[in-house]
Amino acid sequence: MTQEEVVNTEETEKADANDSVARQSGEAGWYVIHTYAGYEDQVAENLKQRISNMGLQDYIFDVIVPKEKQVEIKNGKRKTVEKRSFPGYVFVNMIVTDESWYVVRNTPSVTGFLGSGVRPTPIPDSDIVAIKSKMERDEPEHTVDLSVDDLVRINDGPLKGYEGKITEVDATKGKIKVSVSMFGRETPVNLDFLQVKKI
Description:
single chain; alpha+beta; five-stranded antiparallel sheet; 4 helices; about 40% strand; disordered N terminus
């Protein structure tokens, strides 16, 4: 073996060792795994089962599919629904070892870890705190991107298709008042902000 071959072999061994060490930091962190869309809950359940069956509770501590409450309007009725905050992603709190990495990576419907190459990249704890606080909210947040004098088109309810001008906005309740021209006169209509779209 030439000296060059020895150096190359040593470098390859070092790279392999570094790769293994990179996946054995010994510190728990939150990692993001990518899944097929729509399979997030199934992946989380499968993963929890695998952790239990393989006795990996000392390496994989928590698995969450972040969801938050949102308001939807269907047939003129407002209802609160739970939607995934990050479709296609599952969050795992774990210590990355070769074994724990392998178990997570080879869970059905998992396509990989978020990170560079084979090394998963932990996400900051502050991001997880923010995600968990959104998950714990009882009431959905209203983000009303509408102001007085905005022109809107009604997209739900008995007045669907009509256009009008906003005369009042109640951001805390997510309600607006729209002046709609009907039968030759302006008529004030109380609507949910989700029932209109800005023109």
